[in-house]
Design goal:
The chain has one helix spanning about 50-55, and strands spanning about 10-15, 20-25, 35-45, 70-80, 90-95, 105. By secondary structure, the chain is mainly β.
């Protein structure tokens, strides 16, 4: 059986401020809550909400912002209540809070 190693570092594309530049920065590796799983992002798509947030600050509570609502990738770690998926599953997800433009993100 192959043992996977989750990277201890995470990088994200962040919008620094309203209408600001996008910068790739090192960010903390998210830890899933009981009802979430950690997803290794393999693809992310621009959703109209992503550019609306950057251009107008729509629904942004703080900056910098990690955009990305539409993602696909591989399940890396499960929260204690997650039973629908297993580590290694390939999934597509809509992230209700965004955050998909990073190497690892949390999915509900």
């Amino acid at each position: 059986k192959q043992i996977k190693t989750i990277m201890s570092k995470n990088q994200a594309a962040q919008v620094i401020q309203i209408k600001g530049p996008v910068e790739v920065r090192e960010v903390p590796l998210p830890e899933p809550s009981a009802d979430q799983f950690l997803l290794k992002v393999e693809a992310a798509a621009l959703n109209p909400l992503d550019w609306k947030q950057r251009e107008s600050g729509f629904a942004v509570s703080s900056w910098p912002l990690i955009p990305g609502f539409d993602v696909a990738g591989t399940v890396e770690k499960l929260g204690s209540n997650v039973t629908k998926y297993k580590v290694g599953d390939r999934v597509a997800a809509f992230l209700r809070s965004g955050g998909g433009f990073q190497k690892y993100t949390l999915a509900p």
